[in-house]
Amino acid sequence: MPGAYPQLIQLDQKKPLSAVIKEVCDKWNLSGPENFALQYADGVQTYITESNRLDIKNGSILRLTKAPGRCAEDLYKGIQSSDSGVRCESLKELAAVSTDITFAQEFISRDGHSLLVQIVEDANECVYPELPPALHPVHSGVPMVMLHTLTAFMELMDHGIVSWENLSSVFIKKLVSFVNGKLLDASIQQVSLDIMESMVLSSSSLFHQIRKEITLDQLISHLQVSNQLLQTKAMALLMALLQTAGETDRSLENSCSGIKKKVLSPIIVTPEFVFQNIIHSSGSVGDEMAHHLYVLQSVRLNLLEPRMKTPLDSFNQEQREALHSLRQAVFETESEGSLSNERRRSLCAKEFKKLGFSNNSNPGQDLGRTPPGLLALDTMTYFASRYPDAYSRFVLENSSREDKHECPFARSSIQLTLTLCEILRIGEPPSETGSNYHPIFFAQDRLLEELFCICIQLLNKTWKEMRATQEDFDKVMQVVREQITRTLSSKPTSLELFKNKVNALNYSEILKLRQTERLHQEETLAPPVLELKERLKPELLELIRQQRLNRLCHGTLFRKISSRRRQDKLWYCRLSPNHKVLHYGDVEEETETPSIESLQDKIPVADIKALLTGKDCPHMKENKGKQTKEMLDLAFSITYDVEEYSLNFIASSRTDFCLWTDGLNVLLGKEMSSEAMRSELEILLSMEIKLRLLDLENVPIPDTAPPIPKPPSNFNFCYDFSQAEQ
């Protein structure tokens, strides 16, 4: 209570909360205890209720404040005040307290959210006068009122108490006008974009309304601003529109033709757009933007899925012509009209065999497998038409060889197309937490086809380096896959850079890399060495345990993820130096390593009951059916006090997941079980063994120790030092 002398109370959890509040009020001589409530004084200032009172920890600082019902009533009246100052302050306070679900329920029960909708609907079209942005007053009444109104509305709707479906078209048009406004405050536009993203993801009817109203050209212009937060919110709405369109009609071409034409074209077709305004902007790409770029990449690549899953139809005239164009582009065709049918079929079969088709009499059967289906035909015809010289050189060079070392173009192309589909994850829905995008994707309109053109020539080069025959086909494809994945993992920003790197990674380099990796994993299986390993394990395991605890003491940044929309809120968790308390709390985006004192929430390690992972986690059970395999692999929870209370995590990477689950197992006195621990233990054991066996290089280690000789018949050869001293 402001101005009152603090009280140290023993909170009896068996007493009703109203009785506890009455006792506190009586000590301060306050009447009307029903008008007061307890609230956390630090961190997230949540109201204490009967449902969450068991979360109170020893030493928690609480404050006596207005009851949520009374607070909701006062703010409800305040935002209707005729005094603009009172109205603005009430809305500002409302935006701050609406994050609490107890208050939100009270305010919504008074139909307060409808009042906020009305304020938005009654707003003027132009919130700011026609002034340059530099002259906009920071505390101008109308824009601040609108900013607080929209923020409060978003926080209230985030609790999921009321449905988005009840919003009117007038409200939607007003939000759209805020986004389309050129002279509007960026903060208002950010919140408006945030609200519309949630609307699109929550309702198909709202999606159609927003798609009809939004000016996509203006929305795209927000991607060109220097304000990264506004840029990210605009990108989030674009991705929500694209994903919802795909889920609604399963076809971006039909359901979202306007969006595809106006959104995908400028973002993907024009390389400098994404490079200059997002990837190569002044600031680095944040986690949120990286996720949206990954989603955009997935959505765009998945447009190829229908072709990938469609087999060639031998009765389709267009497909037959495309197939024969491969033959005609490289072989000099005689006047086929003058040939008999049998002669023409024989000639075609011979040429298709030179092209590398397995079934040369009916090559369409080679393209009947899905995937890659028609996508393999598309990549081959693209290569033949875009790079005719390279295509002719490939086919003629291999068709003229008679030493069984010819590389079959068609068979290689079909398998290579399938390999690229698997590497680029074509046909897989985007993950909610994925952020692994390829910058090269945004520098090229037809990425798959251009990658194919580079990689098919790489395949031919690798084939010759390996001096491969038909029996070595699978081995060559494994090497080519490794060349592609290793090169893409280096994040090349252009096709030219990719081409240079992948060609530099020749077969001999792959062998060197494999040999190096094999040496790291190699272990000696001699029994004495295995026994030495067992003796070294306890010491090395203790080293890993200490590393895990040190990592927990340093702490990790985690991201909050909602089932309805991707949140940009972050929280940090770290272990105290004495390994007795876990501290956690919300932090800002730019925070590096917050101090323990700034993390208000804490859980004593002694109160932790169990560590749960994957689908056993409470937050995974709540979102059953929505989580992906990737999210399940990164989820873990700790239960404490009684098992229904838990702290839920979703790690940003598999490495963080392993570090934290290992560290928590150490705190609980259990064995570490992650694959990272096993890998690190093997590496440390291998290094320690090699160091100890340096002196035994090239010395064979016997499987059994040499036998101990029998003792001599007498020990007369020993010198008696005691007698010598006398």
For this entry, give a set of tags:
4-stranded antiparallel β-sheet; ELMO_ARM; PH-like_dom_sf; alpha+beta; ARM-type_fold; 8% strand; 3-stranded antiparallel β-sheet
> Could you list the spans in which at least 5 consecutive residues all have pLDDT below 50?
126-140, 248-272
- Tell me the distance between the termini: 92 Å
Q: How does the major sheet shape up?
A: 4 strands, antiparallel
The class by helix and strand makeup works out as alpha+beta
Portion of residues within helices: 40-55%
Q: How much beta, percentage-wise? A: 5-15%
How are the strands of the biggest sheet laid out side by side? 3-4-5-6
Continuous helix count:
31
Radius of gyration: 34 Å
Outline, from the CA principal axes? flat
Compute the number of strand runs.
9
Q: Return the average pLDDT rounded to an integer.
A: 83
Description:
The protein is α+β, with helices and mostly antiparallel strands and 726 residues long. 53% of the residues lie in helices and 8% in strands. It has 31 helices and 9 strands. The chain has a 4-stranded antiparallel beta sheet with strand order 3-4-5-6. The chain has a 3-stranded antiparallel beta sheet with strand order 7-8-9. It has a two-stranded antiparallel sheet with strand order 1-2. Strand 4 (566-575) and strand 5 form a beta hairpin. Helix 2 (68-78) runs antiparallel to helix 3, helix 11 runs parallel beside helix 15 and helix 21 packs parallel to helix 23 (473-488). The radius of gyration is 34 Å and the shape is flat.
